Amino acid sequence: MATIDEELAQFERDIRQLKIEYDQFFGGGRKRPPTEIEWRLEQLVRRYGERGGDLKLAQRFRFNNLTQTYAKYKDIFRKRMKQKEEGTVQRHFGAAAKAIEAARAKAHAEAEGQEAAAAESQAAGAPFRMTCSEPEQEADKLEQLYQALVSAKEQAGEDTAKLTREGFNEFVKQKTRELQKQKNCKDVEYVVEVVGGQVKLKAFVKS
User: How many domains in the chain?
Assistant: First the structure.
């Protein structure tokens, strides 16, 4: 019988495989969505959701992050499936039109990939990293960093009531400008990690 850690590792692998097979489905490489993997994931979420008391603190933290990652993917897949069923995904013909469609698809995939990468990083228990150079023009990055910090604090049981998006964005902008001026650099890397059971947001100069 598999251990809890082994099942959590399989949970993470199944989430990644689910994304791969859904990408193949939406790209025309599969005739049907990966319902078998979805069923397996739902069973595990339900099982450990009911027996959360059996999990150690680190295991519960990992399970919760994996569950959040899975939920984000499901939301993305649900929206894409709706577009597919409603026929709102435009299909173009001709070399130039196909090139435009490919460019749009790439931009959409990159936007989804950034969000998924942040979720996967936390799901694996690894620190979340984000590099900023012009935060005034990098709203997407600030949003991902903010969400990573809030998620980590919630999982660690820390209060997030005083953490506002506006205040956080202003802090990152000021900190970035300060380090750029002090260190004469362009890029500043922010890291969200758990140290001694407490969530820390650290800033480093990128050489």
Answer: 2
Q: What is the DSSP string of 153-176?
A: HHHTT---TT--HHHHHHHHHHHH
Q: Which tokens sit at 85?
A: 């069923």
The residue to which tokens 């209060």 are assigned: 159
114 shares its domain with 157:
no
Q: How many CB atoms lie within 10 A of CB 53?
A: 6
Long-range contacts of 76-84 (CB under 8 A, 24+ apart): 76/112, 76/116, 77/22, 77/33, 80/22, 80/26, 81/33, 84/26
pTM > 0.70: yes or no: no
d(CA 66, CA 135) in angstroms, rounded, equals: 29
Does residue 123 sit within a domain? no
Residue 184: CA count within 13 A, CB half-sphere: 0
The DSSP bridge partners found for residue 129 are 191
Instruction: Name the residue range of residue 176's domain.
Output: 128-205
Task: Report the candidate in 70, 49, 71, 69 with the shortest Cα–Cα distance to residue 60.
Answer: 49
Split at pLDDT 50, 70, 90, the class of 41 is very high
Question: What is the per-residue pLDDT across 128-175, written as a single tens digit (0 to 9) for each?
Answer: 888 999 999 888 888 888 888 888 888 888 888 888 888 999 999 999
80 within domain boundaries: yes
- Domain boundary pick from 76, 99, 118: 118
What pLDDT is stored for residue 187 in this prediction?
93
Spatial contact of 198 and 156, defined as CB atoms under 8 Å apart: yes
Same-domain status, 88 and 108: yes
